[in-house]
Amino acid sequence: MEWVSGIIFILGTLGLISAWRVLNWVWLKPKKLEKLLREQGLHGNSYRILVGDIKDLFKMEKEAKSKPMNLSDDIIPRVSPYIQKSIKIHGKNSFIWFGTKPRVTLTEPEQIKDVLNKISEFPKTNYKIFKLLASGLASYQGEKWSKHRKLINPAFHLEKLKIMTPAFLESCNDLIRKWEEVLSSDASCEIDIWPSLQNLASDAISRAAFGSSYEEGKRIFQLQREQAEHIIKLVTKSIIPLWMFLPAIVHKRMNEIDKDIKSSLKDIINKREKALKTGESTTNDLLSILLESNHKEIEENANNKNVGMSLDDVVEECKLFYFAGQETTSVLLVWTMILLSRYPDWQRRAREEVLQIFGNKKPDFDGLNNLKIVTMILYEVLRLYPPDSELWGDDAKMFNPERFSEGISKATNGRVSFFPFGWGPRICIGQNFSLIEAKMAMTMILQHFSFQLSPTYAHAPSASITLQPQYGAQIIIRKVET
Ligand code: HEM
What we know:
The chain is mainly alpha-helical and 482 residues long. 61% of the residues lie in helices and 7% in strands. It is built from 19 helices and 8 strands. The chain has a 3-stranded mixed sheet, with helices on both faces. A 3-stranded antiparallel sheet has the order 4-8-5. β6 and β7 form a beta hairpin. α8 packs antiparallel against α9 and α11 packs across α13. It starts with a helix and ends with a strand. The structure holds protoporphyrin IX containing FE. Protoporphyrin IX containing FE binds next to α13 and α19. The site of protoporphyrin IX containing FE (HEM) has 20 residues, from α13 and α19.
């Protein structure tokens, strides 16, 4: 009978270890962290078991999102009501409980700079479920991150972006053609520009990333969008990793999508590798540039494959390009058009500049780099939500691109108060890519159309990773006669 008591002993020990782990996760660790945070002078609510502040936070956010707001109202109470409340109650350097994990809010530029610079002391939070969407550069740490950053960097150099400009032109042309068709012979018409701009950004990243395999790339990106919808639904509904409790049907579909995306991307990559070897393909899209950079690195290191990226690594980076490059640029464009509708004088000044540089001609890379007013406007759109009046002065909440007339460092007095693309070593690798794309899109839109807000537009900025127009962006467009 000795073996029976042996098994009972093992099971008992395993049970105790599991119980200890659960206790540590739901209570001991959060309480220890709370003590440490308070010792550092940070304030916040006391930890509440398992849920923390999450129930109150979701309730407040749901309520805030339930109705649109006035155009001139401050957006913070709608977009980040709980953080705002926490700062009001607990002061500027405070924390909230996202389930069992505390989240610290920082508002001082020097502290923000410190955190963004010290990437090994403040590593990224890795949510397993997001890995189904994409891992890649944005989620790696340490050596793997530096290796990938070094290999991907060349794909975003300015001379490479110049080669990709025709891809942006093509996507913008499609958008202009579609809007012209809708306008037809009418003097004006109303369009919800939000889906069009999302489509534009997804088209542009697909062409720029995959060139000749663009159609297949677009299909993959659509699958990624479906995957993102499943994941966002899950994440917003739950705080605990509930992946294992997913309804079987959703689980099955997500796995199917994952397999389909991976095998289609592998196909594209393998074909491209062959075409590059035989000289049938030129390096004028992100994928080819990435593969070329990878080969170079392997060759320079005596064909040691460990220094380069594996096929799976390249798949993950391609998946990431879509997410990082699509939603970000489309929101920049949608808010730019909404703001230029609200401020017709800036719309006029931007159009004057565009017509002066390009006339009715198709925009080119060098001309886009000479746009000053349009650049100031894009920076101001990136700054505007959410500004802090202590850093930006009394007109912090005003749309005033003029503040960027002498560049970013003059506008910020050299402080880290403007970092739409992040800061430090992990600064956005695609910032020039997205600014060129946004300038191309705005140039062509301004060349062809004038626009104003429709009376049906309901102002409702809503934060879901990026800041989106909750009910779309209904704009009235008119043909510009030049
Ligand atoms: C308006 C457009 C965009 C904005 C506002 C934006 C913003 C950001 C921010 C804030 C980060 C830093 C996150 C952090 O601190 O870790 C980031 C990282 C990144 N972005 Fe962007 N982004 C934009 C467009 C793009 C585009 C078009 C691409 C690619 C085609 C891209 C690719 C990436 C990648 C790969 C990273 C990770 C960099 C790293 O961790 O080393 N982004 N972006």
